[in-house]
Specification:
Elements (H helix, E strand, L loop, with lengths): L26 E3 L10 H11 L11 H11 L6 E4 L1 H13 L6 E4 L5 H8 L4 E4 L18 E5 L11 H10 L5 E4 L20 E6 L12 E5 L1 H14 L6 H12 L1 H24 L3 E2 L6 E5 L5 H10 L2 E5 L9 E4 L3 H15 L4
Helix pairs in contact: 1-7, 2-7, 3-4, 3-6, 8-10
Bound molecules: 4'-deoxy-4'-aminopyridoxal-5'-phosphate (PMP).
Length: about 350
């Protein structure tokens, strides 16, 4: 730390992103990216947009906003595009949390929530997940705090029903409830249709996973127009050109190519079920994931050891060191071929442990 670093950040522990190794080619199953390239339409449009990079991007994202709004059946004033959904989450912490509106989220969830809370000086409560890693919705009912719930949750992949989210919304009328639907397209139920019923609902989604644009950095927030207006106040105070031209064009292409989107989601859901079955056959235990990852442990091998052994063999998965997670690993669901290599490698590796 330099002697110039503001004391308000001196205790800040930043978020640790998953490894993005540049040294060798791994089978990369560690950061929940898509194994498939962006839609050809998205790629073509991004290439075209590169020719206009001397110009600033449209701060209102007009074309993308119109297409996104039509896609979800909401008004243009009800959707805001951001630089990855991480930016939307940070905007939500800035806009809807303070001393009087502390945040509440599970103790095991997306690791960026506590970082955003601390960055913005927001007090927060971490509500423990159950023994089986489930969110107990009743613990959020009437909690009187700004709620952040990833649904499906990460890194467990477990989803709660929309009917339970409605109860959380109804019982916290004076607080915003943020539902982070980063992984919703792989099989869970979305809350987007509820934004006209609940003025305290903010849904956040990303184009990083199901629309194969993690490197483009594009996410979006959907909520009633007052909430979106507040987020715009933050956006125009931080970074009005938050979505660059190429990403905006890629986003338009990705929304237009519905068939490719469907294909990718179906393929991931299928590979998830097949891999889950294969892994169970060789002794893995796991949660019931509806996301593009499996959250697994094996009774015969520790989480860190498994992660290291696989890395030696050229396969990267995500290991977390925290006490409740250390026996587990999160494995992104990749292509059928990648998952076949994974199960074969694990089968071979486990022979050392019988
Ligand atoms: N929410 C959750 C639950 C996530 O796991 C992630 C991805 N790491 C994000 C949001 C952020 O994704 P992005 O910024 O790429 O949209």
């Amino acid at each position: 730390m330099s002697r110039f670093f503001s004391s308000k950040y001196s205790g800040l522990v930043p978020y640790t992103p998953g490894e993005q190794p540049q040294d060798q080619q791994y089978i990369k199953l560690n950061t929940n990216e898509s194994p498939f390239p962006p839609s050809p339409m998205a790629q073509r449009m991004a290439r075209q947009a590169a020719g206009d990079l001397q110009l600033y991007s449209d701060p209102e994202c007009r074309e993308l906003t119109a297409i996104g709004a039509a896609y979800f059946g909401v008004d243009r004033e009800e959707i805001l595009f951001t630089n990855g959904s991480d930016e939307g989450l940070n905007f939500a912490f800035m806009a809807f949390c303070d001393e009087k509106h502390p945040a509440a989220f599970p103790d095991i969830t997306y690791g960026f929530y506590p970082v955003f809370a601390r960055l913005n000086g927001v007090p927060y409560e971490e509500i423990p997940l159950g023994e089986d890693f489930t969110v107990n919705p009743s613990e959020y009912m009437g909690v009187g705090k700004t709620v952040f719930l990833a649904n499906p949750n990460a890194p467990t992949g477990i989803a709660i029903p929309v009917s339970e989210i409605e109860k959380i919304l109804i019982s916290n009328p004076d607080n915003v409830v943020v539902i982070d639907e980063a992984y919703v397209d792989f099989g869970a139920e979305s809350c987007v249709n509820l934004i006209h019923t609940y003025s305290n609902l903010l849904v956040i989604q990303t184009m990083s996973k199901s629309r194969n644009l993690a490197g483009g950095r594009l996410g979006f927030c959907i909520g009633c127009r007052e909430l979106i207006r507040d987020l715009n106040t933050i956006k125009y105070s931080v970074n009005p050109y938050n979505v660059n031209r190429m990403t905006m064009a890629a986003g338009i292409g990705a929304f237009a190519d519905r068939e490719y989107f469907r294909f990718c989601c179906e393929e991931i859901a299928e590979n998830r079920s097949r891999s889950a079955e294969e892994l169970k056959k060789i002794g893995f235990l796991m949660t019931d994931s509806l996301a593009n990852f499996l959250f697994v442990r094996h009774p015969k091998i520790g989480g860190r050891e498994l992660y290291l052994k696989l890395k030696e063999k050229g396969i990267l998965i995500r290991h977390f060191e925290t006490p409740r997670l250390k026996d587990y690993n999160r494995i992104t669901v990749g292509s059928a071929e990648q998952m076949k290599t994974l199960t074969e490698t694990l089968t071979e590796l486990l022979k050392e442990y019988t």
